[in-house]
């Protein structure tokens, strides 16, 4: 008899599968390795419970979507956590991950944390104007936490954002039982920073699933995750009203004459940082030859 469940965490060769009642540590069958499929956190899977209490992972059920940074599958909504103080989030990081999410049909919420330290409004305004659901919160004071809770209720969300913005801290406020390691320097042990090192799905007491992820640094270059340069325009939702109004049908919206996107930018209808990010991503995507992209899309887990 096999059971069905969801992978909550992958650690040291085990996949921790939650079937709604218990969590079983499973090892992947050789078949999975031979087929070169890498199970991801968030995968719905079939497994065989073994007598010793562990399990054997048999099959990964079809994915709704998949991400490689963070490495998660079947995500309804990416919650991009940003901060305007220690660290200051580069909007490009938000735009890149938001574009990847849009290209995979995954919703995006932008959440500016540490509002007790710095005014989140300038950054929040950029994303509100661009049409994203945007929140301003503080894990320190609890400001905005109820709104965030509402935004994630009933959905599978992954928290992403650059290291140190407060992903784990926010999750700890949402459910103190998590007791996730955060970036505090441990003074007693003097072992440096305690931070998130792996992706983990967590269940809030209301049943909602949220993933804590290690976050990314500005140096990560995951150019392979991007769509073709020509498709990138569709990943910037606020460009939509202008795309069919450019003079040239194959307009790249970078510096072309008669470009309606550039016109909207000049009129302040599109935020300058959003367009700058688009151009940067467009040039990055252009630099990847098609053959290389195809090769990577066949087996992105090999990155
Ligand atoms: N002042 C302030 N500090 C915060 C806030 N959220 C997180 N921090 C601190 O920022 C550091 C990094 O937080 P952490 O949750 O580990 O970030 P993560 O890497 O995104 O998971 C820790 O020292 C937290 O205590 C906040 O809203 N306000
Ligand atoms: Mg963390
Ligand atoms: Zn154009």
What would you note in describing this structure?
With 303 residues, this protein is of the alpha/beta class. The chain has 3 domains: 3-62, Beta Barrel (OB fold (Dihydrolipoamide Acetyltransferase, E2P)), CATH 2.40.50.140; 67-221, P-loop containing nucleotide triphosphate hydrolases (Rossmann fold); 230-302, Probable gtpase engc, domain 3 (Ribonucleotide Reductase Protein R1, domain 1). It is built from 8 helices and 13 strands. The protein has helices spanning 30-34, 91-103, 121-129, 145-152, 167-174, 260-266, 272-286, 290-298, and strands at residues 3-11, 14-18, 23-28, 44-49, 55-60, 66-68, 71-73, 77-83, 107-113, 133-136, 156-160, 200-203, 209-212. Helix 2 packs across helix 7. The protein starts with a strand and ends in a 5-residue tail after the last helix. Zinc ion (ZN) is lined by residues 246, 251, 253, 256, 259-261.
Cα-to-Cα separation, first versus last residue:
35 Å
Q: At the fourth CATH level, what is the homologous superfamily of the largest domain?
A: P-loop containing nucleotide triphosphate hydrolases
Give me the number of helical elements.
Answer: 8
Structural class: alpha/beta
Q: According to CATH, what is the topology of the largest domain?
A: Rossmann fold
Strand sequence of the main sheet, in spatial order? Answer: 10-9-8-11-13-12
Mean pLDDT: 88
| CATH architecture group name of the largest domain | 3-Layer(aba) Sandwich
Order of helices and strands: EEEHEEEEEHEHEHEHEEHHH
DSSP helix fraction: 10-25%
Backbone shape: globular
- Could you name the ranges where pLDDT drops below 50 across 5 or more consecutive residues? 185-192, 299-303
How is the main sheet built?
A: 6 strands, mixed
Bound molecules: guanosine-5'-diphosphate, magnesium ion, zinc ion
Number of domains: 3
Integer-rounded radius of gyration: 21 Å
Beta strands, count: 13
- Quick one: CATH class of the largest domain? Alpha Beta
Proportion of residues in extended strands: 15-25%
């Amino acid at each position: 008899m096999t059971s069905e469940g969801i992978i909550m965490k992958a650690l040291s060769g085990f996949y921790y599968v939650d079937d709604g009642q218990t969590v079983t540590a499973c090892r992947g069958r050789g078949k999975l390795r031979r087929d070169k499929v890498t199970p991801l956190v968030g995968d719905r899977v079939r497994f065989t419970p073994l007598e010793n209490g562990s399990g054997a992972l048999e099959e990964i059920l079809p994915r709704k979507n998949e991400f490689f940074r963070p490495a998660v599958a079947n995500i309804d909504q990416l919650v991009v956590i940003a901060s305007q103080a220690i660290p200051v989030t580069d909007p490009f990081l938000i735009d890149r991950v938001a574009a990847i999410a849009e290209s995979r049909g995954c919703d995006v919420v932008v959440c500016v944390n540490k509002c007790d330290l710095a005014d989140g409004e300038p950054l929040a305004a950029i994303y509100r104007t661009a049409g994203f659901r945007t929140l301003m919160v503080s894990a320190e004071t609890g400001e905005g936490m109820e709104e965030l809770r509402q935004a994630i209720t009933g959905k599978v969300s992954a928290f992403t954002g650059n290291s140190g913005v407060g992903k784990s801290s926010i999750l700890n406020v949402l459910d103190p039982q998590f007791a996730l390691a955060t970036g505090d320097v441990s003074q007693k042990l003097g072992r440096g920073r305690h931070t998130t090192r792996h992706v983990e799905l967590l269940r809030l007491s209301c049943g909602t699933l949220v993933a804590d992820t290690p976050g990314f640094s500005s140096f990560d270059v995951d150019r392979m995750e991007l769509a073709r340069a020509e498709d990138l325009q569709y990943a910037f939702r606020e460009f939509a009203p202008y795309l069919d109004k450019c003079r040239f049908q194959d307009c790249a919206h970078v510096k072309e004459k008669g470009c309606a996107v550039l016109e909207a930018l000049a009129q302040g209808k599109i935020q300058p940082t959003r367009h700058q990010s688009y151009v940067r991503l467009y040039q990055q995507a252009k630099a990847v030859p098609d053959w290389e992209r195809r090769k990577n899309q066949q087996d992105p887990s090999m990155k």
